[in-house]
Design brief:
Blueprint (H helix, E strand, L loop, with lengths): L5 E7 L2 E9 L39 E6 L2 E5 L1 H7 L6 E9 L8 E9 L4 H14 L1 E9 L2 E10 L2 E7 L25 H14 L11 H15 L25 H18 L14 H11 L1
Length: about 300
């Protein structure tokens, strides 16, 4: 199991659950390097000035945002730090929603949440409450200076923190040329539909993800192993260890008391506060500029 990359706490009402965050994703990709076929030397990429052709040293590099053709806004490290989200070690659940209502297209990257020793009882309580309700806890979490939207839900005995894509990161399918389900010209004939559903029924099986694997990677690795056994060598690429942050100092005392107070506080706030008005949409930018920004975010 890889080392945790983040340590903090889940804020569940007034309950504080110290946890560590570990990636649930393992991508055994085969890494290639560019090599000169003449002498088998590694290829080095240079930072070259597009106007002068000269290599630019690291201390002269700055970040620039092209807001129009050839027009840049330069951003220093101080500028970027000024707009970074506040560094926090708390996953504060703000809403609970039905897990089934979250579009799978929004799922991005999964993490495991592991409780610290003093937080195991509260961890088990939140886990079983989520399991029974079928809900997911929605929160924002900061990982390595970037803020993410996330959903927390249960898989077996572990709480999963799934980083979510924001809806604007999903491209619309409106411009795709699709056979419309409301167009009678594309309506399947009764016989065709009957045969199609019969075929689906006959091919239906229990989902067993362990039976599926990357056949291309297996074949490629087999080919590479043959070349190694034939006397050729490869570089051993070592992956850096994940950062291990400081431990959380939260404590959990009377769970029932905290939960009761959290419930009363939420109920009182809902009764006193009128519904929040939605923020007015920002004025759209110029067509050309908006199009360029859309291409960068794609």
């Amino acid at each position: 199991m890889p080392r945790s990359i983040w340590k903090g706490a889940i804020a569940f009402g007034l309950v504080n659950i110290p946890v560590s965050l570990t990636s649930a994703e393992a991508r055994p990709d085969i890494q290639f390097h560019m090599v000169d076929s003449k002498n088998h030397a590694r290829i080095r990429y240079e930072r070259v000035n597009a106007d002068t052709g000269e290599e630019v040293p690291w201390d002269r590099l700055v970040k620039g945002y092209e807001h129009d053709d050839g027009q840049f806004i330069l951003l220093s490290d101080e500028d970027l730090e000024a707009v970074q989200p506040e560094l926090t070690k708390t996953i504060e659940i703000t809403d609970f929603v039905s897990l089934a209502d979250i579009d799978p297209l929004l799922f991005d990257k999964p993490y495991y949440l592991e409780p610290e020793k003093r937080g195991r009882k509260a961890y088990a309580l939140l886990r079983e409450a989520l399991r029974k309700s079928g809900k997911a806890g929605i929160s924002r979490v900061v990982i390595r200076t970037r803020e993410y939207l996330s959903a927390m839900f249960v898989r077996d005995d572990v709480l999963i923190l799934m980083l979510l894509r924001f809806p604007q990161e999903i491209r619309s399918s409106a411009k795709l040329e699709l056979p419309s389900s409301s167009d009678g010209a594309w309506k399947p004939a009764t016989k065709e539909m009957s045969l199609a559903t019969k075929l689906i029924d006959e091919m239906t099986a229990k989902w067993k993800p362990d039976e599926y694997h990357d056949e291309y990677r297996d074949a490629l690795m087999e080919f590479i192993e043959k070349k190694i056994s034939g006397g050729e060598t490869v570089d051993d690429v070592k992956q850096p260890d994940a950062e291990d942050d400081e431990d959380s100092k939260g404590k959990v005392l009377d769970l029932a008391g905290y939960l009761e107070r959290s419930f009363k506080k939420t109920a009182a706030t809902s009764a006193k506060s009128p519904p929040k008005a939605k923020k007015a949409a920002k004025k759209p930018a110029a067509k050309k500029t908006a199009a360029k920004r859309a291409r960068r975010s794609a």
